[in-house]
Amino acid sequence: MSHTAHIPSHRKPRRSASKLALRAGVAGGVLGTIAVAGAAGPANAEPVTETIEMPTLGSLENGAGLASAVAASAEASHQEALDQSLQTQENAALQKAAKEARTARAEADRKAAAERAEKARLKAEQEREEQEAQERASRDRARTQLSTTSSGSSSDGGSSSSSDGGSSTGSDESTTQAPSGSAAAIVAFARAQVGDSYVTGGTGPNSWDCSGLVQAAYRQAGIDLPRISYQQSSMGSSVSLSNLQPGDILYWGSRSGSYHVAIYVGGGKYVGAQNSSTGVVERSLDWDTPSGAVRIL
Fold first, then answer.
1. 122 lies in some domain
2. Four-CA torsion 23, 25, 28, 34, nearest 10 degrees
3. Which of 14, 107, 218, 262 is deepest in the core (most CB within 10 A)?
4. Domain count, the chain
5. pLDDT by residue (tens digit) across 90-136?
6. 210, 130: one domain
7. Are 182 and 123 members of one domain?
């Protein structure tokens, strides 16, 4: 080996299998040509003494092995590229599946939250309705007791013996005779709405404004009243506050220009839809003295 054999630029390049096969074929053709020429030449011609180097079997085998190695390498590269492509497709499929799973989970959570909110709303509404029913039942019981008490007081009122054998008759607002007929229906309806809310323009059944309550109460007696407060106070005949009867309409302001109305229920009290803070209440006349009253019955 020469002293420059280890330097890459001085090494002989390896010949590919195709080049080796080509050289072997060329050499074989040359030998065949020489053999034919020798046979056709003169008998006294001198024999050819030139020697041509033939490719050895070992070099041909090395070329075939190199081709096999190149083919194997190409096959390995192709398989690696195919594996990478499959891996990329698998990764993309996994990412898509994960994204769809997150979307489905978020949608499920949203639906669950909406269902919980709806259940809570329905429960709160049911509790509110039950509370309103209890309050209404309580008002009905109180109204029944009040009617019974008023009836008993009127039946017991009259003459009573004094210590000197005389008799005296006494009556005041606390022993006012209970309303009857149309007045009783109006008063009973008005008192049954105590505790309901006040809403501007409300006409029931659980929320009222002042004239809406009066109109609905009179409807129980078969009487149709106008919707507006000043129209209601303009009807019937005017009565003094000292001569009130159950069922009379109380008004605040002028008779033809009232801004609020209520129903006198007896005993110096009235029922009216006051405002959004108090709702429908039963109050004494002294709590908010009306401007006047009218009688329609």
1. yes
2. -80
3. 262
4. 2
5. 889 989 999 999 999 898 888 888 888 888 888 877 777 776 666 66
6. no
7. no
CB atoms within 10 A of CB 97: 10
Give the integer Cα–Cα distance in Å for 228 and 162.
52
Residue 233 near residue 249 (C-beta atoms within 8 A): yes
Entry pTM = 0.44
Using a 10 angstrom Cβ sphere, with 0-12 exposed, 13-18 middle and 19 or more buried, the burial of residue 198 is: buried
Question: What does the pLDDT look like over 29-79, one tens digit per residue?
Answer: 545 555 544 544 554 555 555 555 555 555 556 667 788 888 888 888 888
Q: Which domain holds residue 228?
A: 177-295
Question: From its phi and psi, is residue 41 left (phi > 0), alpha (psi between -120 and 50) or beta?
Answer: beta
Torsion over CA: 230, 232, 236, 240 (sign): negative
Look up tokens 């000197």; give the residue: 164
Q: Are 24 and 59 in contact (CB under 8 A)?
A: no
